[in-house]
Design the sequence.
């Protein structure tokens, strides 16, 4: 609607005539008779004998999709693990052991090698 107004055109030119109030008023201008009680209805035998079945619906196999299918021009979002920095999965599902930083590894080796009980 904003684009139509921006182009200085009438919004009602883009609306179907069935949604105009004049059409609604014309539809109900005549007399609308209420239905009689259901027990008073006259139903022909050929209509009464027809069996109405539910439509054939095939259930789709598999689980429902949780995410939408990306369009052709969209880039798919790829996960990157924050532990091992590999692509394709994230930290929660990472199977690789957590890498130690070199500063932590060198500090722990210095503590073990220069301890007070080293020559015991």
Sequence:
């Amino acid at each position: 609607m904003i684009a139509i107004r921006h182009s200085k055109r009438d919004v009602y030119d883009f609306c179907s005539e069935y949604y105009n109030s004049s059409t609604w008023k014309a539809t109900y201008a005549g007399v609308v008779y209420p239905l009689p009680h259901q027990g008073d209805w006259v139903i022909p035998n050929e209509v009464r004998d027809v069996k109405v079945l539910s439509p054939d619906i095939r259930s789709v196999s598999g689980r429902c999709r949780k995410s939408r299918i990306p369009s052709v021009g969209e880039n798919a979002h790829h996960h990157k693990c924050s532990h091992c920095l590999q692509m394709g999965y994230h930290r929660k599902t990472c199977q690789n052991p957590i890498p130690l930083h070199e500063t932590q590894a060198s500090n722990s080796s210095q503590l073990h090698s220069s301890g007070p009980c080293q020559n015991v």
Summary: The two ends are 87 Å apart (CA to CA). The chain is about 25% helix and 0% strand. The helical segments are 2-6, 21-27, 45-48, 102-113.
